[in-house]
UniProtKB/TrEMBL annotation:
Its main location: membrane. One of its GO terms (molecular function) is porin activity. May have porin activity and function in peptidoglycan binding. It is found in: Cell outer membrane. This is Outer membrane protein 40. It is a multi-pass membrane protein. Residues 273-384 form the OmpA-like domain. Residues 1-19 form the signal peptide. Belongs to the outer membrane OOP (TC 1.B.6) superfamily. SUPFAM superfamilies: OmpA-like. Keywords: Cell outer membrane, Disulfide bond, Membrane, Pyrrolidone carboxylic acid, Signal, Transmembrane, Transmembrane beta strand. InterPro entries: Bact_OuterMem_StrucFunc (IPR050330), OmpA-like (IPR006665), OmpA-like_sf (IPR036737). GO terms for cellular component: cell outer membrane.
Length: 384
């Protein structure tokens, strides 16, 4: 049991350390990698415990007569919205109603290292403002029994040899109630399994197991740093591939132009003709669920603004869309409106184009200008 418990402790420690070094991933969502000082908390609480063995349960005693008290301090860190680790240091008082060698009163000190799993965020998705969160935990720990005066039960023995002590296996449920961004109230119900020798029974090596139920409540406080997780805004790879294709096409055209002869035969002079600029429709692609114009798309806005400056009488119409495979029709219609207005505002605010020369329209997902779904997160310029 001891070898297995030590191995499990090492695994818990390794999990906690490695989880701080990798990017946070939860439910298929990638979150920004935060600093090692983020997501730490400390908790203080107290409550009760009840020792459970067949002899204790069969004893003629009321439930209230069996309740002891306990307190705990914990420090932990959520390594992702779903997984976390913590170290709990606790201690308390046990009331034995059965006839056990340690007597009716027993004090103890201990601690346990746990892995926490946020059941609420795992099943319901991560929401930083959620008021209630349920987190089961499992871990291993240690308990050292003391007498009623907080002294070791065998005063003539070594500190650990032949004393009432045990490695423990710990399971439980943590209910967290969010009070603010950095403060929460917790209610914890736990169960720990320990060796029968802890209460003095089977002191010669009986490895049967006893149990102890615990219930604690208290407050948790964030230890500075960031307490919430931020979803990463991933690049649209279909859009990237399309832009790379355009770049490669332009490079090929430049290479062909480079191969042209440096000189050509003299040509007769031709009287210059006055022509207006020919406008080629530009497009602004957007990321999923966004109406922010990325830096790589600003060139389309710039080219349109330059065309309008060179042709003072020209007007332009901006029509925005949303892809059909994401969101509801009502949501997509509102999103395409925001995209159209964002592009129009960029022309007026960043390049000084008079708003009277710009008209806008939005189609949501009612129209899809491109066969590729991801390309339909777009605003298109049309000369009028």
């Amino acid at each position: 049991m001891k070898k297995f418990s030590l191995l499990l402790i090492a695994a818990l420690f390794a999990f906690g350390m490695s989880a701080q070094e990798v990017q946070n991933v939860s439910n298929g969502t990638v979150y920004l990698k935060d600093k090692a000082s983020d997501h730490w908390y400390i908790g203080l609480g107290g409550g009760t415990n009840i020792y459970t063995t067949k002899a204790e349960n069969d004893a003629d005693a009321s439930f209230g007569d069996r309740l002891g008290w306990m307190g705990q301090i914990e420090i932990g860190r959520w390594n992702s919205p779903v997984w976390g680790t913590r170290l709990v240091i606790d201690g308390g008082h046990i009331k034995h109603v059965a006839n056990v060698p340690v007597g009716a009163e027993q004090n103890w000190l201990g601690g346990h290292l746990d892995i926490m799993w946020s059941l609420t965020d795992a099943l319901g998705g991560y929401k930083p403002g959620r008021v209630w969160n349920l987190a089961p935990y499992a871990g291993v720990g240690y308990m050292y029994g003391l007498d009623a005066d907080w002294k070791k039960p065998n005063p003539d023995g070594d500190l650990f040899k032949n004393q009432n002590q045990s490695l423990t296996y710990n399971l439980g449920l943590i209910n967290n109630f969010r009070l603010s961004r950095s403060v929460s109230l917790f209610l914890e119900l736990g169960w720990r399994v320990l060796q029968e020798t802890f209460d003095g029974s089977g002191i010669q090596g009986d490895f049967e197991y006893d149990g102890m139920f615990t219930g604690t409540a208290g407050l948790k406080f964030g230890l500075g740093g960031k307490q919430e997780f931020t979803p990463a805004e991933l690049m649209d790879y279909n859009l990237i591939n399309d832009l790379n294709s355009q770049i490669n096409r332009l490079r090929a055209e430049n290479e062909n132009l480079r191969k042209r002869p440096e000189s050509c035969p003299d040509c007769p002079e031709v009287a210059p003709a006055v022509t207006e600029s020919v406008y080629v429709p530009n497009v602004v692609f957007f990321r999923i669920n966004s109406y922010k114009i990325d830096k790589g798309q600003q060139v389309s806005v710039y080219n349109t603004a330059e065309y309008m400056k060179a042709n003072p009488n020209a007007t332009v119409k901006i029509v925005a869309y949303a892809d059909r495979q994401t969101g509801t029709p009502a949501y997509n219609l509102a999103l395409s409106e925001k995209r159209a207005k964002a592009v129009a505002n960029a022309l007026t605010n960043e390049y000084g184009i008079d708003s009277s020369r710009i008209s806008i329209d939005w189609k949501g997902d009612t129209e899809q200008p491109y066969a590729e779904n991801d390309w339909n997160r777009v605003a298109i310029f049309f000369a009028e």
